[in-house]
Predict the structure.
Amino acid sequence: MRKQVIFFLMIICCTNGYSQPNWKLYRDSLFNRLEHLKEDSDMVETIINIGGMYQANRPDSAMYYYQKGNILSNKLNYTRGKLRYLACITEIMMREAKFDEALKLTLQAVAIAEKANNPNMLGGAYNNVAESYLDNGNVEKALEYYQKAVVVFESEKNKYKLGIVYGNILGVYVSIEDREKAYQYALKAISNSREGHSDFGEAVGLQNLSAVLIKMKKYDSALLLSHQQYAIGVRINDNTYQSGALACINEVLLATNKLSMVEKNVTEIESLSKAVDDKEGLAVARYQLGSYNFKKKAYAKAKQYATESLAILTENKIHSNLEEVHALLSDIALATGDVSVFESERQLADSIKEAGVSNRILKYNQQLEAEYSLNKKQAEINDLTHEKAITALTLRQHYTTISVLIASIVLLSLLGFLYYRNAKQKNTLLLAQDTLKAQRIRELEQEQQLLATESVLQGQEQERQRLAKDLHDGLGGILSSTKYSFSNMKNNLIITQEDALAFERSMGMLDKSISELRRVAHNMMPESLLKFGLDTALQDFCTNIRQSGAVQLVYQSFDIKDDTIPQNKASIIYRVVQELVNNILKHAKATNALVQLIRKENTLSITVEDDGKGFNTSLLLHSDGIGYNNLKSRVAYLNGTMDIQASEGNGTSVSIEIQL
């Protein structure tokens, strides 16, 4: 699949994307503005913005305007213009796989930003250095500079740029298959990007979260997120995001053997990639055509496309998809009975996978060795200097007494001991500082995780309210009006008895549709919760369950005052109880159940019990179900604790305590 360590996202260079009509309008407005500007910083910004309009689809034109803006920036000594120029041409270099040149440019940008003492510029430069290190295979340095960018943008409370940086960090953890970290940073990237209105950051988060879900074989969720990313790519007129989303969609289709749309998607990927000279996108398209034909058992075509993909990757020194291509060639060889080719291609695929980690470790070790060699040479120089001084002193003091010579030796030994002790203390201090920095980064990550969870939960509740209102007021009103119109028509029509019976059946089906619509809207956001509060809403919910006959559900509450529980917390508590009761209905096979809420001062205790079949609670330690994870995240957001007591054949009891 396409490399999930995301394409370079500029923090300080390029303008936002636009749909095609808006793109033309904005471009024309920039040219009109340029005609009336004098040579100042506004002209620099306008020229570089014009280059940004061409960045996604016409890099040659973009480069022309970037260079023109840089010439004027140097003439005016305009720091921001210099940084934007370096950042934008760095992205072009990286798309052309010129990674060493890109790294040099980003390091120049850091030096300029540090001298200018501008936090936002410096954070952007840190991000770009990290991206360059990543494409050069140095994961450790990349993460180091990403965290520097996070610290800067956190202090500036810049959600837009935080979303982009978190998306980049997410890509790193996807590439090294650390799914837990990848999922955490996906939430951070998406929530910060949406809060900061960053289409770029949201697209990155969606693409990399899709990659995680595909590896976890959660194909439906991955497909939904990929379509959302594709829509963003179309909206901002960015070919790279569109082709990346289509590549993820094809991965899902190939994995689930739904092959009808694969060729059409590949054609679009090739068209989008050719427009921006994206070699990696072309290689992915060839690889997916090979996989498609392999599944269709057209082995000759499959081998042809896989070989073409390998040639593109090799020619352009792209390493991200080599393992997958060699694995496909090995599968084709096995299917056609060519055992020797199968073994050689499989060994290549396995060695590339192992080298992915070992190369990073090797590069890191080489850096340490280089630093050690430098220190060793410096020590040798110091030793030679000391020896020369001792020799000169010995010649000058040839006639001194033995006692003076001994005193000199003792003095030198003492100085050496003090030097050693000072160096050791300095190293200890540096180690302590590194430990404190690492601890601070972990604390920042935990704080961001809590903020991300809060944003996701609030977004879910707001979306539920909006959908429930749209269903009830919009579609519900249309169905009710339709029923009224049909009723009036019946009184004005002369129809046969058989047609009258059919008409009545249709009216009955319409009544059922209206009732089902109201039930769905009520489940998404109960009207009683908004109007009367938590206690009344839970009372209505439990009464409806009991009246349905599914289970004898009893609801009890003590000292619950609806007006003292904030609406956002009441909504989440309602969802927790609803999820627990739904679990009883789905899995417990219970006859009786109890929902009890007790409030003591600022503590709310929730108990949900049933007399069903129970289960082995040790299974929860390895559970990755969405329902259980949603329960944990909601309770954690409320600063609550949850205790589950169950055993097979003895029912289940869930106790939750929340600080209001």
About this structure: The first strand starts at residue 552 and ends at 558. Residues 1-21, 357-385 have pLDDT under 50 and may be disordered. Residues 158-259 form a domain with the Serine Threonine Protein Phosphatase 5, Tetratricopeptide repeat fold (CATH 1.25.40.10).
